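This section describes the prediction task in plain terms. A model, or a person checking by hand, is given the sequence of a single protein chain and must write out its three-dimensional structure as a string of tokens. No templates, partner chains or ligands are provided. The sample shown here is typical of the held-out split.
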Amino acid sequence: MSQILDVLLDSQDCFGFFDQVFLFGSALYTDTPDDIDILLVYTTMNLGQVNIEKARVARALACKFPDYAMDFTTLSKSELQESNFLMKVRHRKIRD
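The expected answer:
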């Protein structure tokens, strides 16, 4: 398990707005990934609020991971189901 995953698991409070959060990509299995890929899942239909909360998460995590680019994917719960995103990528749940 990577140190990045450990830090994310200890930082669950910064994801408060989002219903589910997943880590995927190379940060799952190496401590020196090119970037950190995070899936943020929401239920609200207000995309403005989603973008504000995503920016807040990005700022909070930038302090914890100053040497890494952060790549966020945001999907509604219905988009997550329809796309089968989690069936296509190796992932680890951070928050449920």
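For orientation: The two ends are 19 Å apart (CA to CA).
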